[in-house]
Amino acid sequence: MNKLFFIFLVLFTSLWAEDPIIDVINKDIALPKIIVKDKSNLSDENLKRNFYNILVNDLKVSSNFEIVNNGNESTNYIFEYSLSKNTNNLDLNVKIKIGNIEKSNKNYSSSIEQYPFLAHKSVKDSVNALGLAPVDWMDHKILISRTNSSKKSQIIMADYTLTYQKIIIEGGLNLFPKWGNKEQTLFYYTAYDSDMPTLYSYNLKNNRATKILSSEGMVVASDVSTDGSKLLVTMAPKDQPDIYLYDLNNKKLEKLTNYSGIDVNGNFIGNDDSKIVYVSDRLGYPNIFIQTLGSNIAEQVVFHGKNNSSVSTYKDFLVYSSREPNQFGVFNIYLMSIKSDYIRQLTANGKNLFPRFSSDGGSVVFIKYLGSQSALGVIRVNANKAFYFPLKLGKIQSIDW
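That's the Tol-Pal system protein TolB sequence above. Prediction below.
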């Protein structure tokens, strides 16, 4: 692996920490109570128990409820479900009640191996039926680059709890997966082919990889335009990392930055994809800058911290990881708006890196380091809660949601 690519890996994937499985920052808000009733007639006790546990976990992570085992049913929400096997599939019926009033009654089906998504979708729909804060991200698939040995990494597709995991790409060094559309049927990734970093697209409908670009030094797709037609790519054809705009329709490559240092991790920001933010060391340390497309003027966005090394965007908001001053090795995640002076710290301790917004902007996933393990962290922004799901095999190198 050449020096530039190694530097890029270190920028996004270093460091370690230890934390509990859940951090609750705001402890004083009284939540409506919900009772979970399992009406399943399922002989597979292991599957029955695991499904129940995922449902309860989903309800907790939604941050809309307090789970209770018993109580006055007339004054509580009731989540009543029945799970059954049908050959190689699972069928699920879910009824949501407020007292004796049925608010929702829906049926679901999936393959047995994808049962976590069955649970996630039913909770997502139930939350919507009750008119509570939505969790539409919950049944989205997450892409993870997982390091499993020296200079080898797999790209896996998982649910947010990491209960479901499927290897999509393996063999060699496969890094930086990035979803290519809202339907989650296409993604981009970087493979290290014969010492040449190469960007591929992968179509999940036909399981086919297609070569997009190759470049000496590095080539990484960091963001996709709203309509899916353009990529922001970090390339270093002459050992100089810069941000490029690649048009997938006409195959045109446009260089957006031209600084004699490191510019990486470009993300579109705003509602019209007319501006980008990215990480640059032009101050002598990694920090976040903003630039309008068609202009070469870069403006500083973040004014605290000496190592702000990764960024993600949603509309006019961005989240970024920042090393805390006078706290060795501590990286926290911050949320801010480019339209105001608003800034908010989302994590409290440890190493929290590589944040990614959910599709609705209400949640953030990130990499959390737990001793010798890495974990997927989920921040429920409005509820001030964070949850962690350790990866039991290998280490998380990068993620996309």
